[in-house]
Write a structure and sequence with these properties.
This protein is an all-beta fold and about 500 residues long. The protein is about 0% helix and about 40% strand. It folds into two domains: about 140 residues, Jelly Rolls (Sandwich), CATH 2.60.120; about 350 residues, 5 Propeller (Tachylectin-2, Chain A), CATH 2.115.10. The strands form eight sheets. Strands 5, 6, 7, 8, 9, 10, 23, 24, 25 and 26 form a ten-stranded mixed beta sheet that branches. The chain is globular, with a radius of gyration of 24 Å.
Length: about 500
């Protein structure tokens, strides 16, 4: 890695990993828990006679996105009815605020003798809206998998996300003639290689190294110049439960973010309580990250991003995360499927021999919930005890632009108790530069995602030397989520 960072406008440095920190004293990196919305579960189930009367959640169809052009949150979710048959379809819903959802009557597919429903696809899979697509009929893309085990999967295209046409069948040698279980579809404009513009994740079962099922789900990455011509990563699998403490990684969310890749994965385990063959399956959501999008590291795997709910809660059993985050303004929206503790004898390998129906996954309720983080709020630097001051120093930074501002994303501040100060250091001596010590720094004692750092009336562009290092002093319980650089004068 180049040991000198560039202070270019628009750059944001997070603490997903600690590669940009050279020295730390009495500060620790924390993975932060998202805030569950008080209105959860959000997406209403259908009435008893409707197709999604039992399940309406981002699971096998698993995408929620924000459409900037239309100013709407849009959701493609999996639903099923009050029956013991193993079937699902994809429904569409939209929302102006991401909380209150409308299921439009689309009239496209028949259920129970009529078309008065919001089913938009009879297949399942993840969806993207592709702003870089020139063909308006392919603006929406989907990787479609049917419940019938056809070899491979199919590309799907739509002009509006509602009316879908089938594209080519997709088949990789790694699928060995089967149909993969699709996990993620994304367009990655962060990757400089146009032959890796589209990426997807699927899962396959490999032998386990823990008590429980003999085989467990592992995650594989593929990429290509479009959604019909993929190849598998040579570094697969990108996530294997054998490498962690968990028993299973059922599904995950993946997104390019500020030059890195954020993965929120389902951390699953079996509680040996006499249910099924191995006990009740339980899961919450935890964090892994990558610099290159192929080699992932679990970050503080003892800390949860989204915990399961308490005993008796609608999401008290296990969680299934949607395939991509929604980032709007200063908020990160994380949608998930919540499932109660009544989900016994699941998944299929855990099904009790006395169960007489095809699947235990189609007879319990599954609902959609929302948890949110602030912008860049996956992690933070914080003092170890929330009281005693500490600091973290960066590796050298080159000021490649002249008139720039240093900005900080800071939370949990309290005047005269919890705040942040910044020093500019000479990279050779490690000493603060004159006029840029912490005594000169204006306290950052209010919360904000993009707060300009000042030393009196001076900004970082006035620092007498470049490259430089930054030393962030953290007091009390203040949290430093990120820092970055913006054109001078654009932030307060």
């Amino acid at each position: 890695m180049n040991r000198i960072m560039n202070a270019k406008p628009g750059t944001r440095i997070l603490f997903l990993d600690m590669d940009n920190v050279e020295v730390q004293h009495n500060v620790t990196r924390r993975v932060l828990e998202a805030t569950k919305h008080p209105a959860n579960p959000l997406l209403p189930l259908g009435d008893v006679h409707e197709w999604d009367s039992l399940q309406a959640a981002p699971w096998a169809s698993r995408t929620v996105l924000y459409d900037e052009e239309e100013g709407l949150f849009k959701c493609w979710y999996a639903g099923t009815d009050l029956s013991t048959e193993r079937w699902w379809a994809t429904g569409y819903a939209y929302s102006e605020d991401g909380i209150n959802w409308t299921k439009p009557r689309l009239g496209l597919f028949e259920y129970n003798g009529n078309r008065d429903n919001n089913i938009c696809v009879m297949d399942l899979g993840p969806v993207i809206k592709d702003p870089g697509e020139d063909d308006p009929n392919k603006r929406y893309k989907m990787l479609k998998m049917g419940l019938q085990r056809e070899r491979g999967i199919r590309a799907g295209y739509s002009s509006d996300g509602l009316h879908w046409q089938e594209g080519a069948r997709i088949d990789l040698p790694e699928w060995e003639g089967g149909r993969p279980d699709m996990v993620v579809l994304l367009r990655d404009d962060q990757d400089p290689d146009p032959n890796r513009r589209y990426k997807f994740v699927w899962q396959r079962v490999l032998p386990s190294n823990k008590p429980g099922p003999e085989g467990v789900r592992t995650k594989y990455l593929g990429y290509g110049p479009d959604i019909e011509h993929f190849e598998a990563s040579k570094l697969n699998p990108i996530l294997h439960p054998n490498d962690g403490l968990e028993h299973e990684n059922h599904f995950l969310m993946l997104a390019p973010y500020c030059g890195q890749y954020v993965m929120l994965y389902e951390y699953g385990w079996y509680t040996p309580n006499g249910s099924g063959n191995f006990g009740s399956y339980c899961a919450d959501i935890r964090l892994a990250t990558s610099r290159d999008g192929e080699r992932y590291e679990r970050i503080n795997p003892h800390e949860k991003i989204i915990p399961r709910g308490p005993r008796g809660a609608w999401d008290g059993g296990f969680l299934v995360i949607s395939d991509k985050p929604v980032i709007k303004g200063d908020t990160i929206y994380l949608y998930y499927a919540g499932n109660g503790e009544d989900w016994t004898s699941w998944p299929g390998s855990n099904k009790h021999a006395g169960y007489r129906f095809t699947s235990t996954g189609c007879v319990r309720s599954s609902r959609m919930g929302l948890a949110t983080l602030r912008r860049d709020g996956f992690t933070c630097l914080q003092t170890t005890d929330g009281e005693t001051p500490g600091f973290a120093s960066t590796r050298p930074i080159d000021r490649v632009a002249g008139d720039i501002d240093l900005v900080a994303n800071v939370g949990c501040t309290l005047q005269n108790r919890s705040w942040v100060e910044v020093e500019v250091l000479d990279p050779e001596t490690g000493d603060p530069m004159a006029g840029f010590t912490r005594a000169d720094c204006c306290d950052i004692s209010r919360d904000g995602t993009q707060l300009a750092v000042r030393w009196g009336d001076r900004g970082i562009f006035n620092a007498p030397k470049s490259p430089f290092k930054l030393r962030f002093w953290i007091y009390g319980a203040a949290r430093l989520h990120a820092f970055g650089f913006e054109p001078g004068g654009l932030v307060d």
